[in-house]
Structures are given as structure tokens and as C-alpha cells.
């Protein structure tokens, strides 16, 4: 379990020299689209979660709907973000083939950053973030989600910041990782 200090301190170190997080053939998306809240997002998450649980069984230690689509009333990129906790994200053979068989594709591999992997699915559009049980990042995601759910004024401030960041990123021709930053 991560310590309090690990949870509140964010490490955004760059990749090691010569390393890239992108798996061959994958690249960050451009053209950031922030849409109005969609009441179907929770059901899309439920459908994806069922698909993931069916594919992985006991290997899916925890699944959480995170990101902006998990906050009712929040404008978002129409992409369902999910945190998947596994015993060891470095053991891709334990989960990647099963997820690929259900339509996910491995796009990001960041062993230097909490063992993070991302698999994407097109239908419904989703990002599956994979972490180990000892990573503080899923805890941060849940804290932010729950804070925004419980504080509508903060949710609205966050939405305004998202619209501003998307406009700036689109005007500059930036990709989604630059928007996130």
C-alpha cells in the first residue's frame, strides 16, 4: 500500500534517455474534443468492466471508473477511463493477450512510472490504465473523482480549465499528452 507521502507527491519524471512510452504503431491523439456530460457514460463503464472481468477473472484485482466521465455533470473527452489493478503490470503475458482478444490494444508501456500500461479500445472509446497494487496513482485518481463528485463548484472550475486547455492545445496543434499537462 502506498504511503501518504507517495500519494500526495506526484512524480512526472521524463522517460529514461532513449525510452518512449509509445508502443510501436501507437501515438498520442490530436484534436481534443470536450463534450457535454453524457448520462450513458456509467453504463459504458459497466459494459467495459464486465468485458474486462470476464477476460481476466481473478487477475483483475480492482477496477475503477475514473477520469472526467466518472463525474456526473462534468464535461469530458468522450473516452471512458478505467484503472485496472493487477498483481504485476510488468507481467504483460498475464493480462494483455486476454484483453487484446476482447478488442483492447496495448499502446503505452511505462515501466519507469509505477509500471503503467495503457490499453485502448475503440468501442466504446476507452483507456484502460494498468497499475500494480502498490501504485499511488489509482488512489490519486479516486481522490480527484470523489472530490469533484462531492464539490460541484470545483467540478465547474475543473470543467472551465479543461475547456481552456483543450482550446489552447487545439490552437497550438498539440496532442492529448500536452493537453493533459
Map the helices and strands:
Elements: H1 4-8, H2 41-56, E1 62-66, E2 80-86, H3 96-100, E3 105-110, E4 116-122, E5 125-132, H4 137-150, H5 152-172, H6 176-180
Parallel strand pairs: 2-5
Antiparallel strand pairs: 1-2, 3-4, 4-5
Provide structural commentary.
There is one protein chain. The chain has 181 residues and is of the alpha+beta class. The chain is 36% helix and 18% strand. It contains six helices and five strands; from the N terminus they run ααββαβββααα. The chain has helices at residues 4-8, 41-56, 96-100, 137-150, 152-172, 176-180, and strands at residues 62-66, 80-86, 105-110, 116-122, 125-132. The chain has a five-stranded mixed beta sheet with strand order 1-2-5-4-3. Helix 4 packs across helix 5 (152-172). The mean pLDDT is 95.
Per DSSP E runs of 2 or more residues, the count of β-strands stands at 5
Order of helices and strands: HHEEHEEEHHH
Percent helix: 25-40%
Total helix count?
6
Q: Which word captures the global form? A: globular
State the strand order across the main sheet: 1-2-5-4-3
Name the beta content range. Answer: 15-25%
Please, what is the average pLDDT? 95
Distance between termini? 26 Å
- The poorly predicted ranges are none
Largest sheet: 5 strands, mixed
Class per helix and strand makeup? alpha+beta
The radius of gyration is 16 Å
